Every structure is written in C-alpha cells, then in structure tokens.
Amino acid sequence: MNRVQLKRSAILKMALSGSSDPLLQQQHLEGEDGGGGKQPPFVIRALRIATVVSLYWFISITMVFLNKYLLGSPSLRFEAPLFVTFYQCLVTVLICKVLSLVASCCPAGVVDFPSIRMDLKVSRSVLPLSVVFIGMITFNNLCLKFVDVAFYNVGRSLTTVFNVLLSYLLLKQTTSLYALLACGVIIGGFWLGIDQEGAEGTLSWAGIVFGILASLCVSLNAIYTKKVLPAVDSSIWRLTFYNNINACILFLPLMLFSGEFHTLYYFDKLGSLNFWGMMTLSGVFGFAIGYVTGLQIKFTSPLTHNVSGTAKACAQTVLAVGYYEETKSFLWWTSNMMVLGGSFAYTWVKGLEMKKVQEEPIPKANEKNETGV
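RE: above sequence
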C-alpha cells in the first residue's frame, strides 16, 4: 500500500511542480500497468480514461458554477466570500478524517487512505504553505465573485507566466524561446480580454487584481508543496488535511476583521437547508476535484491532464456564455482563444522538451568525458 501511495504522491508532485523528471515519468508509467503487469484491453483502458476525464470535467465545471452562485448570486446576496472558503476547507477536513477512520476499520487494501491524526509539529511545518494556500483559494473565489464565469479563465490565466518567472527568479531555470513565445500569446490574450470586457462595460478591476494574485499564489503553492511534502511523508492526503485545518484556524481572525461574522449573523437564509446544502456540496466538490485530478494524471499523464484542463476551460467558457445568455464580440472570443491556444502551445512545447530529455542517453558513472575527468 505504501508503494502505491508513494507513486501517487510522486505523480501529483510532478503535476503540481511541473517537473520533467524522467524518474517520475517512469513511476507514472509503472503505475499504469500495476508495476509491470499486463495491461487491460484497449477498449477497457479507453473507457476508463474517458470516464475519468468526463468526471474531471463535470466536477471542475460544476464547482465553478456552484461557487459563482454562492459568491455572486443576486438572489442569494451573501457577501461573505471568506466564510464560503472557510466552510469549504472545514468540509474537506471532515471528509479526510472520516475516510481515515473508515480506512482504519476496513481490511487492508479496501480503502486506500492514509492514517491521519493531528500533529502540531507537522502543522507548523506546513504553515508557510497554508498561508499561500489561503491566498490561492481566497483570491480564486474573490476573482470568481467579481468577474463572469465566461471571463474567469482569462482573469486568472497568468499562472503559466508566473511559473516561468518564479522558476527563473527562485530556481534559476531558463525557459526556451518557444515556451516564452507561448507565454507572450497568453499575456496578449489576457490584455485583449481586459480591453474587451471594458468595451462591453463588464470589466471589474477588482476581479482582475484578484485573478492576478490567484495566479501568483497557484505558482507559489506548487513550489511550497514540493518543499513541504516530506514533512507529511509525501502523502497528498495528509498535506490536504493539514493545509485545510490550518486554513480553518487562520480564516477565523480574517473573518473577524472583515466583519463577516456580522454579515453571517444577519443573513436572512442562515436557517435555510437549501443554502447549507449548496455550501456543503461546494465543499464536497472542492475535496473531489483534488481526487479526480490525481485520477486523471494517473490514468493519462501530467501533460494530458494539462491539455484536458485547457479543453475544459474552453467548454466552460462556451457553457457560461450560453447559460447566462450573453453576447460576446469577435475580439472577446479571440482573447479567449489566445489564452487557451497559448496554454496549449506551452504544454506542447514542454512535452517535446520533456521527451527530448528522456531520450537523451544517461552516461554511466564510471565513464569519463572527453576531457578525461
């Protein structure tokens, strides 16, 4: 069980950090065939992949629309975005604890979930990541609150650009010209989208700022995740538990200072079962997106996951325009296509570079180079 858990953790680390480590790729390939065993028939594999990708699309898109309802619905009028995010974190903590208890009661291998208990030392080790994590989920929700679902993908599209920038500033890693050109296309689409939102009178600068901050925090979250994983035995689920329980504690003073407890006290739907049902469902979907992301990476590959995410963003935009009965200009659609096309091109370029690294022969340790060293 530990071996399977470590493989999944390595795959998720690769997805979060954008790693092109051939060793991690090999672990992914081993995980597909169960450690070197015979693979199932093509039809079974194809149906399994289609099911996992469809599940990822459904949960991800539904979660965005559900959060938009909770954060910005005129009929709900609930002005407490921090409490929404706090409650989603609380639901995730409870789900992790329940699954841990179920796994401990079931026979070995029936429920694959690590044992979870509160450890203050580990919690302190995870705290720097938790601060970034709070920024990521809060700014994501605030961006969604102030911008339309159709523009949400463009509003927080600079994650790839920040990945490149932070890789250079913190890790001194350079990026190829083609990858930089793809980033340029993304930036161009982002600015064109802002221009078109302004032309249509739907531009929210608060939403744009929150989207940029969310993109930055997503990139920082990937870096800190890689640093913190050893503190939780490289278990993504343990990290999820500590991250969310730290977030729940840190959100309390933030909600106090922002006056959201006052807002919550006078909220007219506080006793509505429908409201709490929607809130709980959003928390369940927030937990589920982490699980289906891991599944999609496991049954496809990290690069395929990125391509699927780009295609999902396109479908989400089209659905949002249709659902809210909006009319968009040609240049508005062009900005979306530039962002999606630039993201796809970046993924494609990084995939080719990764393949090239894997195909390069690894010199033996006892071999000398041409200079005789």
